Amino acid sequence: MADRLADRTMRLDKFLWFARIVKTRPFAQALAEEGHMRIDGRPIDRAAAPVRLGNILTFVTHRGEVRTIRIEALPVRRGPPSEAQRCYQDLQAGGEPTT
Q1: pLDDT the model gives residue 52
Q2: Is the pLDDT of residue 96 over 70?
Q3: pLDDT at residue 92, as a whole number
Q4: Which helix (H) or strand (E) holds 52?
Q5: What confidence category does residue 99 fall into, taking pLDDT thresholds of 50, 70 and 90?
Q6: CA end-to-end span of the chain, whole Å?
Q7: Per-residue model confidence as pLDDT tens digits over 4-30
Q8: How far apart are CA 63 and CA 56, in angstroms?
Q9: To pair with 73 at 20 to 30 A between CA atoms, which of 39, 49, 61, 91?
Q10: What is the number of helices (H) and of strands (E) in the chain?
Q11: Main-chain dihedrals φ then ψ at residue 56, nearest 5 degrees
């Protein structure tokens, strides 16, 4: 069963929206398609790129800041912020969790 969970994927834009990293799904699609996003170091230019547990997402926010997160869970809905924050972990530039 653990293998099935590890094999699950979700569209990048849907993850960004469900995890409340962006406010709207169209904004998530635009962010992915602009080419300023990487999954595990690979440049991404399509919103339908699959993400999995453990993937590292790196992207530039609308404020020009570089943000790096690790996917901890794939959400099943766009729930409240407290639920969404459990789906990812913010990482510092050195790859260590922030406090």
Answers
A1: 97
A2: no
A3: 66
A4: none
A5: very low
A6: 32
A7: 655 799 999 999 999 999 999 999 999
A8: 20
A9: 61
A10: 4, 7
A11: -105, 120
Token digits of residue 56? 């590292």
Give the burial string for 75-94 (b: 16+ CB within 10 Å, else e): beeeeeeebbeebbeebeee
> What is the pTM assigned to this prediction?
0.83
E strands, 1-99, in order? 10-11, 37-39, 42-44, 50-51, 56-60, 66-71, 88-91
Confidence of residue 58 (pLDDT cuts 50, 70, 90): very high
How far apart (Å, rounded) are the C-alpha atoms in residues 34 and 62? 12
Residue 15's closest CA among 65, 66, 67, 55? Answer: 55
With residues binned 3-state (H G I as helix, E B as strand, rest as coil), the percentages for the chain, rounded to 5, are: 25, 25, 45
Does residue 51 contact residue 39 with C-beta atoms inside 8 Å? Answer: yes
Report which residue type is found at 73. A
